Amino acid sequence: MNSFTFHRATGVDDAVRETTRHTGAAYIGGGTNLIDLMKENVMRPSYLVSVAKLPLAAIEALPDGGLRLGAMATNADTAWHEDVKSRYPLLNQAILAGASPQLRNAATNGGNLMQRTRCLYFYDLATPCNKREPGTGCSAIGGFNRIHAIFGASDQCIATHPSDMCVALAALAPTVRVSGPDGERSIAFDDFHRLPGDQPEKDNNLRPGELIISLDLPAKGFSKNFSYLKLRDRQSYAFALISVAAGLELDGTTITDARLALGGVAHKPWRDQEAEQLLIGQPATVETFARVAAQVVSTAVGQGSNDFKIELARRAVVRALKQAAEGSQQATDVFQNSNP
Amino acid sequence: MSTTNYIGQATSRVDGPAKVSGAATYSAEVHLPNLAYGYVVSSPIARGKITKIHADEVLALPGVIQVFSHENVPSVAWLDKKHQDQVAPGGSPFRALQSPEIQFSQQPVAMVMAESFELARYAASLLRIEYEQEAHETNLETQRAKGYEPGKGKTGYQPPPPPRGNPDKAWEQAAHRMEAEYVHGTQHHNPMELFSTTVDWHGEGKITAYDKTQGVFNVKNYLVGVFGLNKDDVRVVNHFVGGGFGSGLRPQYSVYLAVLAALELRRPVRLTLTRAQMFSFGHRPQPLQYVKLGTNPDGSLAALQHHVLHETSHFEEYTENIVTWSGMLYQCDNVKLGYQVAPLDVFTPLDMRAPGAASGSIALEIAMDEMAYEAGIDPLELRLRSYAERDQNQDKPFSSKKLRDCYHQGAAKFGWEKRTMAPGSMREGNMLVGWGVGGGVWDATQKKSAAKASITADGKLTVLSGSGENGAGTYTIMTQIAAETLGLPLEAVTYQLGDTDQPEAPLQGGSWTAASVGTAVQSVCQDLAGKILKLAQKQADSPLQDAKFEDVEFLNGQIRLRADHSQSVVIRDVLQSSGEAKIEADGSTTPNMPKQSQYSLHSHNVVFVEVKVDEDLGTVHVTRVVNAIAAGRILNQKTARSQVLGSVVWGIGMALMEETVIDHKFGRYMNHNFAEYHVPVNADIRDIDVIFVDEEDDIVNPLGVKGIGEVGMLGVTAAVANAIYHATGKRVRDLPITIDKLL
Ligand SMILES: Cc1cc2nc3c(=O)[nH]c(=O)nc-3n(C[C@H](O)[C@H](O)[C@H](O)COP(=O)(O)OP(=O)(O)OC[C@H]3O[C@@H](n4cnc5c(N)ncnc54)[C@H](O)[C@@H]3O)c2cc1C
Ligand code: SF4
After folding, report:
1. Which chain B residues have a beta carbon less than 8 Å from that of A231?
2. Whole-angstrom Cα distance, residue A237 to residue A217?
3. Residue B725: which of B379, B428, B414 has the closest Cα?
4. Looking at residues A20-48, what average pLDDT do you find?
5. A252 touches chain B (CB under 8 A)
6. DSSP B635
7. Rounded to an integer, what distance in angstroms lies between the CA atom of residue A197 and that of residue A204?
8. Is pLDDT above 50 for A279?
9. Is pLDDT at B555 greater than 70 in this prediction?
10. How many angstroms separate the alpha carbon of residue A117 from the centre of ligand 2?
């Protein structure tokens, strides 16, 4: 049968060593993505190193005032952690906007960063896909690409990174601590994922054997003025067509600091630092937001069935910034306040 | 003692505890020793042929038993007739693994048999198959010119009636007019339960197939015909279906392959399809629908035209009744209905909940809304101005039709009179509010059915009829009917179904089970009651001595004189003192054709929907639904309501998200999993009100039942689309109405 060896790592060193030693080895966290990919024969690791039970599930304060999220903490435990709820509610909202309670209970933070694209062709062995099999071609270009990228795509791959959590993280800018054969290093979140370029098979800049051990959030959490807006085909259990994570700091009505990231639009969670700079110093008005949103989408390129995303992204950015400025939450959910 | 009048009560499902505790056994859960497991390999191409199968490579794996393909399967019956099941359309049914030819993407091309499921799956993933690819055509748009009027091959298909009046001229001269084309997505049934068959092998040519099906007899006859087996040697069993929606009406290639393997390997076999393979057989076709309506100055319909083209496969001519209903739902003297199909390189479409009507009602009911706006008349009022008192298609009166009550009660419950006509005129903050209406009509059908009832001396009644149980509530309503007819408590009654050793019942589809099997169950229980009465009368000093059957009633465990309730006997006492261990009655019932044929037999409904649409973002929420239904007598308020709730949810999905996406480059359905094939989740659904209006009907069948499995779905999708128009002023005619269509 489809045989693989299952090894439960006894520690970080053991995990890294085992993964480096065996060709075809892969880490497995909650398994909510990897097992699916194995069932579809998209990924066929021969050696699984289980890291979910490593003692890296703690969520704890950092000396610089930040918060460390253990890589093995589940998405659910992370979202509902008191410090996350109160200091980083943007992250809480983004995680809860994703998947389903059952999935969030199993999924780990490390696995969430590493989850692979939902491109339909990537999942179907009957169709060519450069990410799955480099050099075979990209079926999504000229095909069904409603869920595909409008930013940073290449002629090799137009896939998107599907995570919600990572969009909030892109805005909050933690560092990703990893441990590998050459020891530990830290990667700025924005440098963790990558654009497809001519190596679409590579989702991120992790080196072979490296294990994510934590996400270190900086002190600033934008806990007063934030919004995670997710637009999708149904109200739950669907990936984002467009999502926006916005965080603002206001002095009166003047924006003193800003964060803006989009999901469902690129091969990586799409933080737009130029837009952030445009916001700073400006009044928190719809006019400002509209100007910035126009700027955000000015570099967007549609692929046919996803052309609508450019306009949708523009409107979503305006709405998210407006909600953040008002201090109201995501809520396109009219059900909560509908009283017919 | 509480009364044994159960019919019409909100009785909870008698099979509920078994289902929620896991005691209910589904086809893939029948445990047999020495099972061999099959796994189907599906074609990556849509047209061409297999040139080589490298079976030897996987046969070398320890534990792999066989690789079946066109190279080595035994031949089966030659005649198409032998492969045609009860509801097969005309043509040549698909025969898996009988030829190297590829006719559709995901066609089964091989089946790997192994000692475990995991091994079979792994081996299947390694099986190399070479193909010679040919150009395919899966796009109906480019095949419009290939449309033709199909024949009458399929049971239940009625070609549209000939035109009446002068529809072209009437439309030209109408005071107000509209015309438009509508399309909705292809849908795959996708019940939760995967198609699965476990076959027990009892020796040469003798099998029991535990199959996921909506009709065990249909499967049995098919297997007997295809494999040339002895009728007495084939038994098909299905006690529970984890959702059917029509997917189990025809025997699927899974049961064919599982039986083929069991006969060849001479051992028990299990075959389960994958979720992706659930997209490899029948589907609701994607119709291109053209509607033209015109009204008289008073707002009544002057002209109605409805033309449809949808796909079929190259090997079968699938048909469904899409346009016929349009000639019947409203009064209109100038009507033209057209229906065509065109072949594509896909599997044959397959009836899906309210086949035809679900599609047709989308086009007609959105068109009615467009007409209302053209004419400047409230959409509900427009419908009332063309209320059909007679079925003009057949020129017959309705056996009963309380659609007007549905309109009034539904509108009152919904608050329709507060609606303002102009699009975008009902706001709530930055939400646009829209109210829409739609409705439909569906057949009330009764089919021949047989049943058997037996009661033992301890007063325990068992009733058998080999129908299906889709989750519709069949176990429960049949138990209610039997218990009430014999005046026994529910707990004393066991109803069994889904076994070809039982008396024959029709396929479970078409909303006819309650009417057909219910009538048979009632009838055999009445016969049994007659026998019990006779036994009672044999007793010395029986108070019922001279009573005729009509003079007594069976109630609360007793038989008593209708005229004098004090004159009674206890049923159990009668049975015990009779000395008989068991009393039985069996028989079958058929519709009363002389009576029924004078009437048009139909159920009707109307649906009111409220949506809230975010003006900037295009997100739609369906916040309220009222569905008012006239479907004769309701046997069980609870299971009937559940049927309608499911219908409404599906209708909402059809309006907003559900669609199988095909990539024509590959001729392949691409979103073949539950993450990407979107159906509503809890968070999408809010208030759903169901009203069953009183409707008495002693023509449809003795129970007065019309069936509610399908009518509840009609009009929902159109009502959502109409509500969205009312909210936004955007008329979307290409469903589902996803966010991008409202920007
Ligand atoms: C039906 C469905 C719907 C979903 N909807 C959403 C949604 O709406 N929004 C959303 O954001 N997500 C969604 N998800 C995805 C879900 O969030 C991810 O599957 C999950 O976060 C992955 O975490 P895991 O621990 O289960 O990863 P695994 O499946 O265990 O692993 C995923 C990948 O990460 C690698 N890996 C795991 N841990 C580490 C580590 N510590 N260091 C390095 N590599 C590691 C593995 O080798 C593997 O390649 C959905 C998933 C499903 C199945
Ligand atoms: S977009 Fe990327 S993942 Fe999708 S088919 Fe193209 S190469 Fe593959």
Report:
1. 617, 619, 739
2. 27
3. B379
4. 96
5. no
6. S
7. 12
8. yes
9. yes
10. 9
User: What ipTM was reported for this prediction?
Assistant: 0.95
Give the pair of three-digit tokens for residue B625.
Answer: 């639904």
Burial class (CB in 10 A: 0-12, 13-18, 19+), B77: middle
Q: Partners of B304 in the beta sheet? A: B293, B335
8 Å CB contact of B684 and A315: no
Helix residue ranges, H only, A219-307? 273-279, 286-296
The single-letter code of the amino acid at A101 is P
Chain A 35-54, residues with CB within 8 Å of chain B CB atoms: 41
Which of B146-152's residues contact partners 24+ apart within 8 Å by CB, and which partners?
B146/B342, B146/B343, B147/B309, B147/B340, B147/B341, B147/B342, B148/B340, B148/B341, B148/B342, B149/B339, B149/B340, B150/B90, B150/B312, B150/B317, B150/B319, B150/B339, B150/B340, B150/B341, B151/B90, B151/B317, B152/B90
How many A/B residue pairs have CB atoms within 8 Å?
A: 112
Q: Is residue B484 part of a domain?
A: yes
How far apart CA B186 and CA B669 sit, in angstroms, is 10
CA distance A144 to B173: 44
Burial A44-77 (b: 16+ CB within 10 A, else e): ebebbbebbebebbebeeeeeebbbbbbbbbbbb
B180 and B296 belong to one structural domain: yes
Nearest Cα of chain B lies from the Cα of A2 at a distance, in angstroms, of 5
Amino acid residing at B224 = V
The response to whether residue A212 sits with its C-beta less than 6 Å from ligand 1 reads yes
Same domain, B573 and B641: no
Last residue of a domain, one of A35, A53, A71: A53
User: Annotated catalytic sites of B, by residue?
Assistant: 710
Tell me the C-alpha distance between B264 and B249, whole Å.
Answer: 26
Q: How far is CA B52 from CA B75, B102, B131, B273, B530, in A?
A: 19, 13, 7, 24, 67
Separation of CA A138 and ligand 2 centre (Å): 5
What is the torsional sign of CA B5, B6, B8, B10?
positive
- Nearest residue to B618 (alpha-carbon basis) of B525, B495, B730: B730
Residue for token pair 């192994």: B114
Interface of B with A in 440-469 (CB under 8 A): none
pLDDT band at A328 (very low <50, low <70, confident <90, very high): confident
Q: What range defines the domain where residue B566 resides?
A: 16-23+447-590
Q: Looking at the complex, does the CB of residue A143 fall below 8 Å from at least one CB of chain B? A: yes
Reference B735, options B722, B138, B673; nearest CA is B722
CB atoms within 10 A of CB B465: 30
Count of domains in chain B? Answer: 3
Query: What φ, ψ does residue B185 adopt, rounded to 5°?
Result: -70, 155
Residue of A7, A14, A34, A232 to test ligand 1 pocket, by largest number of atoms within 8 Å of CB: A34
Strand partners, A229: A244
Query: CA-nearest residue of chain B to A320?
Result: B617
Q: C-alpha dihedral over B211, B214, B217, B222, to 10 degrees?
A: -70
Prior bond of A174 cis (ω within 30°): no
CB contact under 8 A, B623 and A334: yes
Query: What is the model's pLDDT at position A329?
Result: 63
Return the pLDDT at A335.
47
The pTM (predicted TM-score) of the whole model is 0.97
Residue that is written with structure tokens 């209970």 in the block: A105
| Residue B734 is assigned to a structural domain of this protein | yes
Q: Mind telling me how many Å the CA of A180 is from chain B's nearest CA? A: 32
Convert the pLDDT of each residue in B648-668 to its tens digit. Answer: 999 999 999 999 999 999 999
Residue B27 DSSP one-character state: G
Ligand 1 atom closest to the Cα of residue A36 is 53
Tokens of B21: 């505790």
Provide the CATH number for the domain around residue B232: 3.90.1170.50
Which residue(s) pair with B660 in the sheet?
B186
Domain boundary among B251, B272, B293: B272
